[in-house]
Write a structure and sequence with these properties.
The chain is of the alpha/beta class and 552 residues long. The protein has a domain at 36-193: Leucine-rich repeat, LRR (right-handed beta-alpha superhelix), CATH 3.80.10. The chain has helices at residues 4-24, 39-50, 100-111, 222-226, 269-273, 395-403, and strands at residues 52-53, 75-77, 84-88, 115-116, 130-132, 155-157, 165-166, 179-181, 192-193, 208-210, 234-236, 258-260, 285-287, 294-296, 309-311, 316-319, 333-335, 343-344, 358-360, 367-368, 383-385, 393-394, 412-414, 420-422, 436-438, 443-446, 460-462, 467-470, 484-486, 491-492, 495-496, 509-511, 518-519, 533-535. The strands form seven sheets. It has a 19-stranded mixed beta sheet, covered by helices on one side. The chain has a five-stranded parallel beta sheet with strand order 22-24-26-28-30. Strands 1-4 form a two-stranded antiparallel sheet. α4 links the parallel β10 and β11.
């Protein structure tokens, strides 16, 4: 699915970088000669480096031997004036945590963090319009007040840099700012907070504001102030400890395209006092997940006809109003997962979502009924999650529904704990784009079809806790992208050999526990994979400890 919020944010960022590129004028068109950096600004950068801790030597090019600071890593200058316009010192790696590859990426992320202090010499870069220090580790120091002296700044990103304490009010002096990101990370122990957002009131050019994971519990003026920013297009206030949604006499969010209010403590007062939200006709992205909303999903949402992304997961909604989705012709992402919805899937009213790409109804255990045949019209579906819904349906019927026009688009299908029965058949051959297939905890029976090995894009396959029996097809060894394979707790009773794993070079998670499989590997076999998790309870490994395990 096209991630709408990324589209909005990237569009704004692209505009910003376009302006920077125009001012930097890197090319030599129109006969402009190269100027090189200003002496005083080179000295300012060298002082900045002195106070920074750089374990991975990212700033190795910042040295007195190379006098042209415009050629240093992360430094961009105007070719006309030589002034430093942009400092891009963000961590070049990101870390989400999880599987083995991400752990390795996390190690790179940790090694590449800059730390230490931000030297006040930074204010000598008076022409700076872009500053990015995101993803570094400043170990809980306060955001420097003197950043508010960089009056030409248009872009400031300090996200995930582990600053802490009170936000300096001096940031309110940055009247040219268009992009401001002070968001934290979920794994950080450092807390940014503020008692009021009044310092934002003068930032009339601000288009993108992200204060996610900042403690705004005392900032009772958060709505009043953000409403006063006439250019605001993206507002992110995820996990800000907000619980009160104050009345707003007049809404000025006419430019707003993306609204993130997830992981707060909002209740239905938002719909009582915030009915203006339903008038934001330009809104394309809204995330209200992980709050305290309950009862019926508000019918007013249907007025947001430009929406492409609607996230209501992890609340307490128990019902919908007929026709509430009828006008969402452009909706690409819908999640109402982990609510308390009741009735049948048909009652949710999904049949007109012809642009839908990601659909998540999972965790609504009181929702049931077969997948409606109208789903056959949802030809753009790439991801479907109906786990924990009582479908009581034969798997072949499910495949028939999704194969009508969307077989080639579907990339992820999760029907775990859905009371699915029947055989796995060669119908699966129609779903060549599948990278995730989760069918665990159902009543599937019979052998594994060779067609599974033809799903060449598969990264995750979960067939655990069914009644599958017989042989494991050798074709599984062709799944060169497979990372996760769970065959546990079935009735499989055949042999596994090297051929079953010959191309599984990316496999990190394998479970075959609860079967009667016999593992027959050559004593000198070296697996092509590096496992993170291996579960083989009740399998027959042979009289000796398997030598291939030494390589894992």
């Amino acid at each position: 699915m096209k991630s709408t919020i990324m589209s909005v944010s990237v569009a704004i960022l692209f505009l910003e970088l376009f302006v920077v590129a125009a001012m930097i004028n890197i090319s030599f068109c129109n006969g402009n000669s190269y100027v090189g950096c200003i002496d005083s600004e080179r000295e300012a950068l060298l002082k900045l480096k002195q106070d920074l801790i750089d374990p991975s030597n990212r700033l190795a090019s910042w040295n007195t031997g190379d006098g042209d600071c415009c050629k240093w890593a992360g430094v961009f200058c105007s070719n006309i004036t030589g002034h430093v316009l942009q400092l891009s010192l963000q961590n070049p790696f990101s870390y989400l945590g999880g599987d083995l590859r991400e752990v390795k990426a996390g190690s790179n992320y940790e090694r590449s963090k800059l730390g230490g202090k931000v030297n006040p010499s930074l204010v000598d870069l008076k022409h700076l319009i872009h500053l990015d220090l995101s993803g570094n580790d400043f170990e809980g120091i306060q955001i420097p007040k003197y950043l508010g002296s960089l009056e030409n700044l248009r872009y400031l990103n300090l996200s995930g840099a582990k600053f802490a304490g009170m936000i300096p009010l001096q940031l309110g002096n940055l009247s040219n700012l268009q992009y401001l990101d002070l968001s934290g990370t979920f794994l950080s122990n450092y807390d940014l907070h503020v008692d009021s957002l009044s310092w934002l009131s003068g930032l009339y050019m601000l288009e993108h504001l992200d204060l996610s994971q900042m403690n705004l519990s005392k900032a009772s003026d958060w709505l009043l102030v953000t409403n006063s920013l006439p250019s605001l297009k993206v507002l992110k206030l995820t996990k800000c400890q907000l619980c009160h949604f104050p009345p707003l006499l007049s809404a000025n969010f006419s430019s707003l395209k993306a609204l993130h209010l997830a992981i707060n403590n909002f209740d239905n007062s938002l719909f009582q006092y915030g009915s203006w939200v339903f008038g934001l006709r330009n809104l394309v992205f809204i995330d209200l997940s992980s709050n305290q909303f309950q009862g019926q999903i508000p019918i007013g949402l249907r007025n947001l006809t430009s929406l492409r992304h609607l996230d209501l997961r992890f609340n307490y909604f128990n019902s919908t109003t007929p026709g509430w989705l009828s006008k969402f012709n452009d909706l690409e992402f819908l999640s109402v997962a982990w609510n308390s919805l009741q009735g049948t899937i048909s009652s949710v009213g999904l049949e007109n979502l012809t642009s839908i790409e990601t659909l998540d109804l999972s965790g609504n255990s009181k929702l049931g009924g077969k997948i409606p045949t109208s789903f056959a019209r949802l030809c753009k579906l790439t991801s479907v999650d109906l786990s924990l819904i009582d479908l009581s349906q034969d798997f072949s019927q499910v495949l028939d529904t999704f194969s009508s026009c969307g077989a080639y688009a579907l990339e992820s299908l999760d029907l775990s704990i859905c009371q699915i029965s029947g055989h796995l058949t060669n119908q699966l051959l129609q779903f060549k784009s599948l990278h995730t297939l989760e069918l665990g905890h159902n009543s599937l029976f019979g052998p594994l079809p060779p067609a599974l090995g033809e799903l060449s894009s598969l990264k995750k396959l979960d067939l655990s806790n069914n009644m599958l029996n017989g042989f494991i097809p050798l074709s599984l060894g062709k799944l060169s992208h497979l990372e996760y394979l769970d065959l546990s707790n079935n009735k499989l009773n055949a042999s596994l050999s090297e051929i079953h794993f010959v191309n599984l070079t990316k496999l990190t998670w394998f479970s075959a526990s609860g079967n009667s499989l016999i593992l027959k590997f050559n004593p000198n076999w070296v697996p092509p994979f590096q496992l993170e998790t291996l579960q083989l309870r009740s399998c027959h490994l042979g009289p000796h400890f398997p030598s291939w395990l030494h390589s894992q």
